[in-house]
């Protein structure tokens, strides 16, 4: 038994070493990836249910690693946040989103708003002027870019950057609280924040089929949004049953695999072309 345990410990240590090595390698690669042009944006449509009308896009970062292939942001964003790379990376994302919208405008399309995920680390480092500089550089109207901040990030950042609330308010930028419902903000604190949109976390949506509690949480969030005069977007909608339930609650703007997974620029441009009128 003792030997077995030892072998297990040994294997365990090796797997930790593997993890550490992957992490170190990824981190080194990450530093070079911007220069090497390995990042790209995918776009996931936000649609109005049940009309199917396109009302927005969320920009989602992808890393095309030369050896490891497509790497999920869930893997490299935490690394980038830990080593500070998220600041240049986040700037790249905003520039790329603005440059895409500018290209659509040049093609004579009328774009829908594109929302950009912003890391709390970026907002502690950069001020709002810095964040919004690409809008001016690419002459993108303010109503075509939104930002998504997670609920917990929003609370953290406000602790560390006291001027932020006023700056965000003054900027008139539309702000969505991402993964809403997973943090623990009070109604009182939410009321003071310059928020425009609640984005309901997909965990609730996915449980609505079997959990009464999840259904009640969704109902409550929609009621809260109404009380605060905010819009609601629901993420992670995968089935028509979920979509119909959400609609019955008064939430008609949705995003999820039921409509489309995130897709590359060409596909997104195609959706935009088909939705012109
Ligand atoms: P998020 O902001 O909550 O983005 C939604 C995630 O859910 C995306 O994963 C999307 O592909 C996925 N998703 C969309 N519809 C469905 C669905 O119907 N079912 C399921 N199961 N999943 C769905 P993705 O693209 O892998 O991004 C993961 C996370 O990485 C994002 O979560 C966001 O927190 C972060 N992220 C992505 N791009 C950026 C970025 O440019 N900057 C920063 N700071 N974070 C980013
Ligand atoms: Ca998001
Ligand atoms: Ca989200
Ligand atoms: Ca989420």
From TrEMBL:
Residues 23-276 form the EAL domain. This is Diguanylate cyclase (GGDEF) domain-containing protein. It comes from Magnetospirillum fulvum (Rhodospirillum fulvum). The chain holds residues 261 to 537 of 561 of the full protein.
């Amino acid at each position: 038994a003792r030997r077995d345990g030892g072998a297990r410990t040994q294997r365990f240590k090796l797997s930790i070493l593997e993890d550490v090595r992957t992490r170190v390698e990824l981190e080194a690669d990450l530093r070079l990836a911007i220069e090497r042009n390995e990042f790209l944006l995918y776009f996931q449509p936000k649609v109005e249910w049940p009309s199917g009308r396109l009302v927005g896009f969320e920009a989602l970062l992808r890393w095309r690693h030369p050896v490891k292939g497509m790497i999920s942001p869930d893997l490299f964003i935490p690394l980038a946040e830990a080593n500070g790379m998220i600041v240049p990376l986040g700037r790249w994302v905003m520039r790329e989103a603005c440059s895409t919208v500018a290209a659509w405008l040049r093609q004579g399309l009328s774009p829908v708003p594109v929302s950009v995920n912003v890391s709390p680390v970026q907002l502690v480092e950069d001020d709002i002027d810095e964040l919004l500089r690409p809008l001016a550089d690419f002459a993108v109207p303010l109503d075509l870019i939104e930002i998504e901040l997670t609920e917990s990030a929003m609370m953290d950042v406000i602790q560390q950057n006291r001027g932020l609330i006023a700056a965000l308010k003054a900027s008139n930028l539309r702000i969505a609280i991402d993964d809403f419902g997973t943090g623990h903000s009070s109604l009182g604190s939410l009321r003071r924040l310059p928020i425009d949109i609640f984005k309901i976390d997909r965990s609730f949506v996915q449980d609505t089929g079997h959990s009464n509690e999840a259904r009640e949480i969704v109902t409550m969030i929609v009621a809260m949004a109404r009380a605060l005069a905010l819009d609601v977007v629901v993420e992670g909608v995968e089935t028509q049953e979920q979509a119909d339930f959400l609609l019955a609650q008064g939430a008609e703007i949705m995003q999820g695999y039921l409509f489309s997974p995130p897709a590359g620029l060409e596909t997104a441009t195609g959706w935009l072309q088909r939705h012109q009128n």
